[in-house]
From TrEMBL:
GO terms of biological process kind: DNA repair; error-prone translesion synthesis; SOS response
NCBIfam families on file: PRK03609.1
Lineage: Bacteria, Pseudomonadati, Pseudomonadota, Gammaproteobacteria, Alteromonadales
InterPro entries, per database record: DNA/RNA_pol_sf, DNA_pol_Y-fam_lit_finger_sf, DNA_pol_Y-fam_little_finger, DNA_polymerase-Y, DUF4113, Rev_trsase/Diguanyl_cyclase, UmuC
Organism: Shewanella septentrionalis
A Gene Ontology term for the protein's cellular component: cytosol
Protein name as it appears in the record: Translesion error-prone DNA polymerase V subunit UmuC
Amino acid sequence: MTPSLFALVDCNNFYASCERMFRPDLAGRPIVVLSNNDGCVVARSAEAKQLGIKMAVPVYQIANQLRQHHVAVFSSNYALYADISNRVMTTLEQMVPKVEVYSIDEAFLDLSRLDKCTDIHQLALNIYHRIPQWIGISVCVGIGPTKTLAKLANHAAKRYPATRGVVDLRDRERQRRLMALIPVDEVWGIGRRLTKRLNIMGINTALQLADAHPKLIRDTFSVTVERTVRELNGIACDDIQEVAATKQQIISSRSFGSRIDNLEAMQQAINEYTFRACEKLRSERQCAKAMSVFVHTSPFSDATPQYSKSLSGSLVRPSNDTRDFVTLGQSLLQRIWREGHAYAKAGVMLGDFFGAGVFQLGLFDDVTPRPKSKELMQLLDKVNHSGHGKIWFAGQGIDPTWGMKREQLSPRYTTQWAQLPIVK
C-alpha cells in the first residue's frame, strides 16, 4: 500500500493580495478588506497585521488608526476573489493529479500517487514560484503524511521566513520538533473551547496532544479529536475529497445597507435572495422541495419595536425552477410581514434536496411540470454568467436604498469587460 502524502497550498493574505494585484501603487501599504455592509475587518495585509489591526473589529472603532496610517480600505469584492481563486486552483490541477479545493484560498494536493522519481520538495518549490508568476498571488506550501501535519507544515512556512515558503514534514523527528513549538490551539480542528479543556489536562502544545492516549482523548472529547491525535502521529484518517459533499441546505441572506420598512422593498429583497439560492441549487445539480423565509429587526436597537419571524412551506414536487420558489417565497413573506417595523435582515433557505429524477409523486398528486423548465433555467444561467448582461425576474432587483453597503468596492478587473484595467 502506497504511504499517504499530502501538500497544503495556502494563498497569503488572499483578499488583500487580490486587491493589490491591479494596484501597484499599494505596494508596501497596509490593506484591510471589510465584511458585508462595510461592517468589520475580514482580511488584512501583512502590513496591516503589523499595525495591530485585529480580525472582526468593527471598522468604526479603528477609523482614526486607518486614517493615521493611510490604510487602504476595500469592500469585499467576491466576484474578483472567486475568479482569482479559480485561476490558482486550475494551475494546481495542471501540476498534480488530485486536488481538493478546501476553501477559496486553500487546496490539499495528493502527492502519494506521483511517480517515485518525483522530487517532492522541488515540486513544492515549483508551486511556490509558479502561482505568483502566473497569477500574481504568493503562496506557502506545507507537506506531510496527513492533512493535519500538512496544515502544521503550512503554518510553519508562513510563520518562519527562513523556510522560504516551503516546509516538508515527512521526517518524524522534524514533525516532533515543530509540534513542540506549536500551541495546541494552532492545530487544525482544535478551537478555542477545546483548547481551554485541553489546557486543564496539561496539554498546551501540539506535541503534547500527539503524545496523549487516543482512547482517553476519545472518551473525554470525541472521535473527531481522537482522529486529530492519530493524524499528528502520521496516521492518515482523511483522504482527498475530489467531489464535494452534497449540501443539506442553501441559505441566501444578507443584512440590509439601510432598514426596510415597506413591503415592496422587502418583496424585491426576497426575490433577489430566492434567485441567488436557486442559481446555487442548479449549480449543485439538485432540486429542492422545502423553502423557508425569515425576516427580523436589529437585536441591537432598543429604540424601535423588535420582531423576528420565519415560516416554511413546501412544493408538491421538487424543483430548481426559480419561478416555483419565487411564488412560494412571496406567499410565505405575505404571511409573516408586519407593518410598523424597520427590518435589518431577511433571507431564504432551501432544503429537502433530491437528485434529478429521484422523487416519485404520490398516487393522487396531480402536478404538471412547467414546460421547457430545464431548458429555460439553463439559458437563464448561461446568459447571467456570460458577462454580457443579466436577465431579471419581475419584482427582482437591488434597490439602492437597501442594497448591501459597499462604498469601497474595487472594480471587477477579471470578469467585466467594462472594468478591465487600462494600461497607458
